[in-house]
Inverse folding.
């Protein structure tokens, strides 16, 4: 495989960190950047901000940008596998499922691309923008539009199964990228008028609706709802996080810190980048505060799990790497211009950030005190083994 010509290797050692939690000793960590890919397009100061989160699938990394380019990379080595030019820019609508990359543009085109080579499987055209990542569930794709509509589509053909149109009373809204969430027999979705709704998975009929707005403007529910057996969690832009009963929509608890981006919930903990510049860890059941981070600049985005750490990007730099046990900052790093795209993280310690100037950077966190035994060097997958070669290389193979 041949590397990209515009690939730059950053400083090998950015930082070291170590800490102790009671009797639990955490090994020192090293934050390294292996590659950065710069855009092929001219970026100016009036270029819209990037809000499309990269997507990790095995050893592949999919990205899309406001210029309308979709890319597939080998995420460890940074090799370009394929590139697809769309009719218009992408502003948040990127997802993967069932061997397809689903991507929507701001001219109303929703594409299903073959993840192997980027070829188009089907396309759906509507009159509004696609801003949120589609949700792929079994043989269906659920996707929301910029004017508060939800489509349930056939994953194989893109044909419409059902369509729900929500007509709110909003006058001014926040441009968010919330997605529908499927749990059991319901689809949950937040809207720009401050409502959270539960729809029937089968036919899109409304089961319940709950109004969460608590002020006169900018009260959007711009976070993707999180649902589990305990209930459904959503945050609004007007300064609150809510947990509601799945069946009735009754509020179980409220926490006074809204969010622009979705929380991360795992192991009965809710990690949230609040609009007050604080990152919180809450008890999932009670909303009790487990820890609060130091204040960050700009708007914090969705926390990403990266190995034993959390990574939070911000709209104005820096991104921060946190210890999820106590909220202490392990590392800070700058993307150059901030971002509105959350980091994409992996349990193997790698994470990826797309800056507002469209620079894609890989990072990895190395536990340098960790005992290491024999290592296995993995060969590329069947997908990357062929597509990672140049055209001339493929003819010779």
């Amino acid at each position: 495989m041949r590397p990209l010509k515009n690939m730059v290797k950053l400083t090998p050692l950015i930082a070291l960190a170590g800490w102790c939690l009671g009797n639990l000793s955490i090994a020192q960590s090293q934050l390294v950047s292996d590659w950065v890919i710069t855009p092929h397009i001219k970026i100016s100061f009036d270029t819209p901000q990037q809000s499309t989160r990269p997507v990790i699938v095995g050893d592949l990394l999919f990205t899309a940008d406001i210029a309308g380019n979709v890319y597939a990379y080998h995420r460890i080595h940074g090799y370009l596998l394929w590139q697809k030019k769309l009719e218009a820019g992408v502003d948040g609508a990127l997802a993967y499922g069932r061997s397809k990359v689903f991507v929507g543009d701001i001219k109303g085109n929703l594409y299903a691309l073959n993840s192997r080579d980027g070829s188009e499987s089907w396309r759906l055209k509507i009159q509004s923008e696609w801003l949120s990542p589609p949700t792929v569930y079994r043989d269906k794709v659920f996707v929301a539009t910029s004017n508060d509509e939800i489509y349930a589509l056939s994953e194989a053909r893109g044909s419409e199964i059902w369509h729900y149109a929500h007509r709110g009373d909003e006058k001014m809204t926040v441009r968010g990228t919330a997605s529908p969430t499927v749990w059991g027999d319901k689809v949950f979705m937040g809207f720009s008028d401050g409502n959270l709704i539960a729809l029937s998975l089968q036919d899109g009929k409304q089961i319940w609706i709950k109004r969460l707005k608590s002020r006169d403007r900018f009260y959007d529910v711009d976070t993707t709802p999180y649902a589990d057996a305990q209930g459904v969690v959503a945050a609004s832009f007007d300064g609150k996080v809510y947990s509601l009963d799945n069946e009735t929509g009754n509020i179980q608890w409220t926490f006074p810190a809204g969010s622009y981006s979705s929380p991360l919930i795992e192991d009965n903990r809710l990690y949230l980048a609040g609009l007050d510049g604080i990152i919180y860890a809450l008890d999932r059941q009670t909303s009790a505060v487990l820890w609060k981070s130091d204040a960050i600049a700009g708007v914090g985005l969705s926390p990403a799990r990266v190995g034993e750490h959390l990574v939070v990007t911000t709209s104005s730099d820096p991104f921060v790497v946190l210890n999820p046990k106590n909220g202490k900052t392990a590392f800070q790093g700058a993307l150059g211009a901030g971002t509105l795209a959350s980091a994409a993280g992996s349990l193997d310690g790698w994470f990826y950030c797309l800056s507002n100037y469209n620079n894609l950077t890989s990072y990895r966190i190395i536990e340098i005190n960790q005992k290491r035994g024999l290592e296995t060097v993995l060969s590329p997958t069947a997908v990357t083994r062929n597509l990672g070669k140049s055209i001339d290389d493929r003819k010779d193979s």
In short: Residues 1-26, 372-397 have pLDDT under 50 and may be disordered.
